[in-house]
Amino acid sequence: MSSHPFDRSALVLGVVGVVSPIFALSTSSNNNFVSVQGAGLVVLVVFGACAVIGGVLAKRALVVFAGAGYAVAAILQLLQFGRSTNWLDGTGSTFALMLGLAIGLLVVGLAPREQHDALQ
């Protein structure tokens, strides 16, 4: 595993994506503040796993792929928000979660790495 902070950040963001379907287990509306169901469950886990693998193996391309996948899913969710067609079975909270993961992974994957190496 890489000791670079960007790789560790990608790993943590990926774990958040993999673990986020736990929101689907909640049955109460009081503590279910992120709506995760249907195809959104699969999208979160698959791209989260890609980010975890990218972080562990220090593969920036895989981290960027996961971030781009989350971005496409977030845009899809936004376009279908409030309509009868909703392929990811999500809401605005699903959009926000995917957008947050997308931005984080894209920043971590595309950021230049020479700055950290110069500090050591």
Key terms:
single chain, 120 residues, mainly alpha, 5 helices, 66% helix, elongated
Short account of what is shown:
The protein has 5 helices and no strands. By secondary structure, it is mainly alpha-helical.
Structure characterization notes:
Helix 1 (5-19) runs antiparallel to helix 4 and helix 3 (60-79) packs antiparallel against helix 4 (92-110). With 120 residues, the protein is mainly alpha-helical. Helices cover 66% and strands 0% of the residues. The relative contact order is 0.20.
Average per-residue pLDDT, rounded, comes to: 86
Proportion of helical residues: 55-70%
The value of Rg in angstroms is 15 Å
Molecular shape: elongated
Strand content: under 5%
- Class derived from helix and strand content: mainly alpha
Following the backbone from N to C, one meets helices and strands in this order, namely: HHHHH
Treating each run of at least 4 consecutive H or I residues as one helix, how many helices? 5
**Total count of strands:** 0
> How many strands, what sense, and barrel or not for the largest sheet?
none
Give the low-pLDDT segments. Answer: none
